[in-house]
Amino acid sequence: MLSNTTQLRPHPEPFRPRAARLVLGSAHRFGRPDGAWWPRTRDLARELGELADVIDPLWGRLTHVAVNPRHWRLGPHGVVAVNGHEVAVDRFTEGLNPHRILLQSYTAGRWDLLVVPPLTSAPSAARLMAAVA
């Protein structure tokens, strides 16, 4: 009996997950963002995993996020699976800048990040992120 399977060859380089494009300020400043995040897409469920990979070790497990849904693709539910745990997603159209995301953890509180739109050019994104850092 002949098999129609294709032999898979190992990839020459090990797989490395992408890191979140993120800068954090040196100190919490009331009324100003605590950092800036440049996601690759507008799909919040997809992007939160990369963000949590960086945030969780620094601030504790991400438990809640709040976004203005104007610029995000969001599923119908208020919970997203992120790296093996659930993160509650709150949507606010009033009072939350559409270019911000609020992050919360049980251990370290709340942070406010500027969201650089995904299609922003690299030089423009670098300027925006440097202004926040």
TrEMBL record:
InterPro entries: DUF5994
Source species, domain of life: Bacteria
Annotated protein name in UniProt: Uncharacterized protein
Species assigned in the record: Streptomyces parvulus
